[in-house]
Specification:
- This protein has one domain: Rossmann fold, CATH 3.40.50.
- By secondary structure, it is of the alpha/beta class.
- The chain has 8 helices and 13 strands.
- The strands form 3 sheets. The protein has a 9-stranded mixed sheet with strand order 5-4-6-7-3-10-11-12-13. Strands 1-2 form a two-stranded antiparallel sheet.
- The two termini are 25 Å apart.
C-alpha cells in the first residue's frame, strides 16, 4: 500500500509507514492539540524532497517560522528553508465563500508534481456559515452542508484517482458529555483514516479511531523544535 512519510520517525512507525496516498486522513481535536504541527511536518517532509504541496489555510495557522524551525532541526538532507517554502503553495480563506473559491482554485492549480494536499481547518468557516444559516431557513442549512460535502468529495476523488494523499484538520465540540466532530457524518464518511488528538494538561495523545488496515491504538507524543516524537506507547 503506497504511503508518504509523516515527517516523523515515530509517527511513521505507529502508522506502519506513514499516511496512505489514496485517502483522506483527518486529524480532529481541540485547540492546542498539535493538529497544525502534524500538517506542517508532513508539508516540510514533501517539500524538502522537491515535491509541490498545496496548503489550504482557513485558521491562519501556517507559520513560515515554524517551517524554518523544522527544516533547521531536520536531518540536513534535501532542500533548504527557501526551497521548502517555495514548494508550498498557500491558499488562504477567511470566510466560507473564500473557502469555496480556494477549492475551485485547487482544481485549477492541481498539477502532476503535487504530492500532498492539506486543509488546515476544514470546518471552522463552515461552522460559522452554518450558524448564520440556522437563523435563516432550512434551505440555507442544506446549502452549507452540501457545499462542505462537495469539498470533501473533491478531495476524495483527487486522492483516489490521482493518488495524492490528503490531510485535513477538524474541530470538535461537546454534546451531552461526549466529544463530537464538527461536520459529523460528512467528515466521517469521506475520511478513511481518523486520528483524534487530545491534550490533557500538556500530555498529548493520538487515538487511531479509523483505518483500513490498522486496529485502534494510541500514541502519546510531544512537540519539539524538529516536529513531534513519542513519549511512550500505550
Amino acid at each position: 500500500m503506497a504511503k508518504i512519510s509523516s515527517g516523523s520517525y515515530d509517527l511513521n512507525n505507529w502508522l506502519y509507514g506513514g499516511y496512505e496516498k489514496d485517502v483522506i486522513t483527518c486529524f480532529y481535536g481541540g485547540p492546542g492539540t498539535g493538529k497544525t504541527n502534524l500538517c506542517l511536518l508532513a508539508a516540510v517532509s514533501q517539500a524538502k524532497k522537491g515535491n509541490k504541496v498545496i496548503y489550504i489555510d482557513t485558521e491562519g495557522g501556517f507559520s513560515s517560522e515554524r517551517v524554518k524551525q523544522i527544516v533547521a532541526k531536520g536531518n540536513g538532507k534535501g532542500l533548504d528553508e527557501k526551497g521548502v517554502l517555495e514548494n508550498i503553495l498557500i491558499l488562504r480563506a477567511t470566510n466560507f465563500s473564500e473557502q469555496k473559491k480556494a477549492f475551485d482554485d485547487l482544481l485549477k492549480n492541481l498539477k502532476k508534481e503535487v504530492s500532498l494536499i492539506l486543509v488546515d481547518g476544514m470546518t471552522m468557516l463552515y461552522r460559522l456559515e452554518l450558524g448564520d444559516a440556522r437563523d435563516k431557513s432550512r434551505e440555507d442549512i442544506q446549502r452549507v452542508n452540501s457545499e462542505l460535502a462537495r469539498q470533501m468529495r473533491i478531495l476524495a476523488e483527487i486522492a483516489i484517482k490521482q493518488g495524492i494523499p490528503v490531510l485535513v484538520t477538524n474541530q470538535v465540540y461537546s454534546w451531552d458529555g461526549q466529544i463530537e466532530m464538527v461536520g459529523g457524518d460528512i467528515l466521517k464518511y469521506w475520511s478513511k483514516c481518523l486520528i483524534e488528538i487530545v491534550n490533557d494538561k500538556g500530555r498529548r495523545t493520538m487515538h487511531l479511531r479509523k483505518h483500513r488496515s490498522l486496529e485502534e491504538k494510541n500514541l502519546t507524543f510531544q512537540i519539539w523544535d524538529g516536529g513531534i516524537r513519542k513519549r511512550g506507547w500505550l
